[in-house]
């Protein structure tokens, strides 16, 4: 009887490593886990929330400086529009040491009542990740009611 393996090179299976299929399956599982973690963490949303927290803090700091300026001068700084001109007046008076800047470079908005006596103002920053709903929401401070909160953009008036 002939030996069928005679004359052929016998191959031994090396079982010390992983097969290509096993490696691909592990890589696919890791990719799915990474995707699930990224969706759960949502870094873009967290960055928007962090920038909004900075805006809210800045509005509070500016509001305190405005109240101090009003106590000393019996009126708020003028004119209305971008807050930079009013903030410059607050810095010149010493009520604001450093002019806060919006995290993405937008201007904080500073509005004066139409009566012309600079006795009522509103200050707001547009939020990126509003918690109140869809649309343009702002973090608004009113001098008359000394209130601060999240409202629609058109509702922040002195």
From TrEMBL:
Family annotation (Pfam families): N_methyl
InterPro entries xrefs: N_methyl_site, Pilin-like
Signal peptide: none
Residues that span the membrane, as ranges: 20-41
Keyword vocabulary terms for this entry: Membrane, Transmembrane, Transmembrane helix
PROSITE patterns to which the protein is assigned, alphabetical: PROKAR_NTER_METHYL
Superkingdom of the source species: Bacteria
Keyword Lipoprotein: no
Protein name (Swiss-Prot/TrEMBL): Type II secretion system protein GspG C-terminal domain-containing protein
Species name: Candidatus Curtissbacteria bacterium RIFCSPHIGHO2_02_FULL_40_17
Lineage of producing organism: Bacteria, Candidatus Curtissiibacteriota
